[in-house]
Amino acid sequence: MLFASNNLGKIKEVKDILKVDIKSLKDINQNIEIIEDQETFMENAIKKAKEIYRLTGIPTIADDSGLEIEVLNGFPGVLTHRFLGKNSSDSDRNQEILKLLQNKENRTCYFTCCIAFYDGINLITHEYRLKGEISEYEHINNGFGFDSIFLYNNKFLSDMTLDEKNQVSPRKIALTNLAKDKIFQKNLDLMK
Asked: Domains of the chain (ranges plus CATH)?
């Protein structure tokens, strides 16, 4: 089974959550870049799962996730990882978000994760949103993405252990719900 990403942080999370040997595109010597040009996280996840399956013939899990900031009308949303361009770092994006929120009282945000699984016949989707706040500064410790600016119950995601983060992680909750699906379970049984 494939996870449609080469993001090592995401792949480690997926393996830890599902407790199965998920392969990345790199693991199967594929360099496939799916353009995320859809309007919603879910549409992007579905597109990636179906396209990777079409190209590899391997049942595929895909996700699209990102940050939605209330006072910015959901920005950066589906552009979370690329609103500053391909070569920008997590810290570059986080610093830009902090600039956009300077002097804003409402710092409410959501970490949204949409998961799609496609096996050539069945499409299974799950979504989960974590509500938090954007901090006033970047606090780099652990994690990746916007973990260093996202506060959940006044704690940075970047300060959480992997176990703590997995308790609230939208990716974990969406993947856990996927793992309970009977059709997904049948696909896992075929891997054994």
From this structure: 2-191 (3.90.950.10)
